[in-house]
Amino acid sequence: RAAGPGSAEQPFVMAQGEPEPVLTVHREEEEKKEGGEGPELAPAADGVGLQENVQGLKQELFQEDDDDDSCSDYGSRDKSGTILGRIVLDGNALFPDTFQTNHLLFYERFKAYQDYILADCKASEVKEFTAEYLEKVLEPSGWQAIWRTNVFEVLVEVVDVEYSSLKAAVRLSEPFLCDSHVSTFTLECMQELLELKKHQLPVQELWVVFDDSGEFDQTALAIEHVRFFYQHIWRSWDEEDEDDFDYFVRCVEPRLRLHYDILEDRVPSGLIADYHNLLSQCEALYRKFLNLRSGISSSDSDSESENVSMVEGLKLYDEIEHLKQKLKLIENPLLRYVFGYQKHTGLQAKGSRSMGTKITHVVSSTIMASLLQSLLREKLCPETCDEELEIQFHSDPLTAVSACYEGDTVIICPGRYVVDGMFCIADSIELEGYGLPDDVVIEKRGKGDNFFDCTGANIRISSLKLVQHDAVEGILSVHHGKTTLENCVLQCETTGVTVRTAAELLMKNSDLYGAKGAGVEIYPGSTCTLLGNGIHHCKEGILIKDFLDEHYDIPKITMVNNVIHNNEGYGVVLVKPTVSSDVKNIASKNSEGNIQTIQSNGETDNVEDLGHEELHECATDELELHERAEISEQTEGNCEIANELVATSVKKSQMHKKRLSELGITEADDNLMSQEMFVSIVGNQFKRNGKGSFGTFLF
């Protein structure tokens, strides 16, 4: 087995207090006999030779056999001294210290679960494999531990281990040591509690008392692995999932990676909150489902109430499966940023000032007289301005934006401004750079979430260069209201600009690059207008989220004269679920959208009410994630993007009608039912994108 932490060879250490031997240390390697029977003893011609021979024999006796199967990657019981640290408890000073095992690295836990505990077991075999692992490495008795609950801590002694149930038989240590938030836990109460539990406790509730001999290192580490597994990896519904897959690959590895991604600040705080919320919802629904199922199974009657319970159980099951799918998307490092999450920002708009005044905020670290004169002439005191402006000066843009109220304007003078925080804009303000974007640079340092969070009704950002470093989330997110980006340069780190549900983005004459995800992410129910932008050197150019779900509205998308080039994947990607024959079946329906497409001669042509043949021709091919044929790369994407979006919107309309029909609504107003997607995709150029101009991501 590969050597892991702490399995490096330990030097021979004399017992504490033992007098230092007179023998000199022989550092030369001893010659071996050809038969391999141990070190050869040289003739003791003098005292030095004898000392060398004795030392060589001592080294041979204490040399560890690397091939010994009794050793694990955590060190051997035979080694002298512990390889683990200790935790000094802050509470009761009489309590002994415990082993420090909660600091293990990702690869240490990964290797333990993959190679020693779970291997290739199925979900139904997890407990059995864990019991076998504990039986190999856990000391069966003779060690002390602290039994910890949310209410108390008490020192116990382990007298036996019931491996199959993952429990340890314990008794109270003498003298009795207990630390509790309440004073009711006396010796008699604790003995009574242990009797109720038949003196058996789950091993994950035990923290092994520190021992510097090294004898209980493996015991402490084994219990830590079990404790971590049941706290962060195992789900109560795992055992009921399909049992024909490798549990480690399917569940353990992605959940373990997510845990360490969160610890290392690589996951947005909003996504973390969503994950824990989904997990809590799923656990609550699963408990409710188990109670309902046990109630049905214990009843032999075929009453109407039991039939109702069956229907309710099926609904709960569907809800649980839906939540489990969402959890799996977040656990998967490749998909968590593709599908994203619904972030509900808690920003509150300040509104207008009590006197209704509007202030112009000027940002400059230092300002020259000539620059101030130009500002006064062009921005602060223009000839057309009849009202006198109130001006405030700031040294950094984050302070200026934080001081804004409804209707304020922030003018940022040329310079490079490094901020360590997030711009949260909840009011309708204007943020503009005075000069060219490359002259007015705002650079974000430090790990955190978004660079810009916009929720105001009408926000305008212009002539700025935004540079992102060490980011966790995208460079700008529009959660509510309308945000206009004009003449800006966005140097991204993770994803680029995100347009959330019910939000609106107008991005004009801007340059966006460097996103490790998509340059622009468009959510269902949003409005996105992209005019004359450059989107390049990203993972994907533009990503349109799945909007087939019944809770989502179709986004309104306009793309005109953009240059989308040199992206690693596709220029534009549509994310949607795999539905059998979903595009082919639309051929029998007419599109209710209005599409502007570009012809091969470069002239635009309005195509209204696409018929059976036209829609069938443009939309029946399944767009898989593989390299598309190179046909007129700069312009071929416009038509297929528009047609695919309209085809998907027609599919959604059909699904909506089918749901109404299932509910017994046979007559529906088409004007109310139709959710039209206004798509204007004209004059866009797609150059040198790794997989082509357009594709779909099927999940």
From TrEMBL:
Interacts directly with isoform p52shc of SHC1 via its SH2 domain. Interacts with TRIM71; leading to enhanced SHCBP1 protein stability. Interacts with both members of the centralspindlin complex, KIF23 and RACGAP1. Keywords: Acetylation, Cytoplasm, Cytoskeleton, Phosphoprotein, Repeat. GO terms for biological process: fibroblast growth factor receptor signaling pathway. GO terms for cellular component: midbody; spindle. This is SHC SH2 domain-binding protein 1. SUPFAM superfamilies: Pectin lyase-like. Its main location: cytoplasm. It holds the Pfam family SHCBP_N. It is found in: Cytoplasm, Cytoskeleton, Spindle; Midbody. SMART domains: PbH1. Residues 471-602 form the Right handed beta helix domain. Residues 25-36 have a biased composition (Basic and acidic residues). Residues 108-336 form the SHC SH2 domain. Residues 1-49 are annotated as: Disordered. May play a role in signaling pathways governing cellular proliferation, cell growth and differentiation. May be a component of a novel signaling pathway downstream of Shc. Acts as a positive regulator of FGF signaling in neural progenitor cells. It comes from Chelydra serpentina (Snapping turtle).
